[in-house]
Design goal:
There is one protein chain. The protein has 222 residues and is an alpha+beta fold. It folds into two domains: 86 residues, Translation Initiation Factor IF3, CATH 3.30.110.170; 109 residues, Protein of unknown function (DUF541), domain 2 (Alpha-Beta Plaits). It has a four-stranded antiparallel beta sheet. Strand 3 and strand 4 form a beta hairpin. The protein is elongated and about 95 Å long.
């Protein structure tokens, strides 16, 4: 009868973020659809000019999503019957700007955006650039942990670990983003003195974990 041992291996990594993802949302409301679209285009051009003043290529700004929704108002007729009518249109335009983590560049671009007349909503995410490399390192760490456990158990039983016979794992849904949240209301930037936007932010490391199940053969100790 073949002798085997099955152990769980836990891989853990703490990765410092090296990528900034700046999301900016512009909202436009107008009574006519064509006016809403036209104004949204003007705001987009102004936003691209703002990031250009911060030293970025305007084309670095990408559209993450764009949607137009009707603004519905409720009205009553003379008999008291309620009905909904379209009172206008609202455009939501979400932009994404990605660049190497650099606090000075981040502060500069946020300053240029929020000191404009756009009054956008924005949020900052910190992530990593080489996602596949990170996943590979996480798998290596999990396998190394499983092998270590197998060696300890085998040694205690007076055996040695042979070949790996089976490996099972499932990728858990994990985020390659730091849990650090960076947010400041637009009105704060408008009333803050010049230079006060350079707020140092050291994002939290990205903590990842995966669990595998590995089966090894056991052989007699020599």
């Amino acid at each position: 009868m073949d002798r085997t041992i099955t152990v769980d291996g836990v891989g853990r990594l703490n990765i410092p973020p090296d990528l900034v993802i700046l999301y900016t949302t512009l909202e436009t409301r107008e009574t006519k659809y064509s006016n809403a679209i036209h104004l949204a285009e003007e705001k987009e051009a102004e936003l691209r000019e703002a990031i250009a003043r911060a030293g970025f290529n305007p084309d670095d700004l990408k559209t993450a999503s764009f949607r137009v929704e009707p603004i519905k108002d409720e009205k009553k007729d003379r008999f008291g019957t309620k009905s909904q009518v379209v009172g206008g249109f609202v455009c939501y335009h979400l932009f994404k700007l990605m660049f190497d983590f650099d606090q000075e560049r981040l502060s500069k671009v946020i300053s240029q955006i929020t000191r404009s007349e756009l009054k956008p909503n924005f949020s900052v995410k910190y992530s990593v650039q080489r996602a596949n490399f990170v996943k590979d390192e996480l798998m290596r760490d999990a396998v190394a942990n499983a092998q270590h456990k197998a060696y300890v158990f085998a040694d205690a039983a007076g055996c040695k670990v042979g070949k790996m016979l089976d490996l099972k794992y499932e990728w858990e849904k994990f985020s390659l983003a730091s849990k650090t949240n960076y947010f400041m209301e637009d009105r704060t930037y408008h009333i803050a003195p010049e230079g006060q936007e350079d707020i140092p932010v050291i994002p939290e490391d990205i903590r990842l974990q995966m669990i595998i199940s590995a089966t090894f053969e056991l052989v007699d100790a020599e």
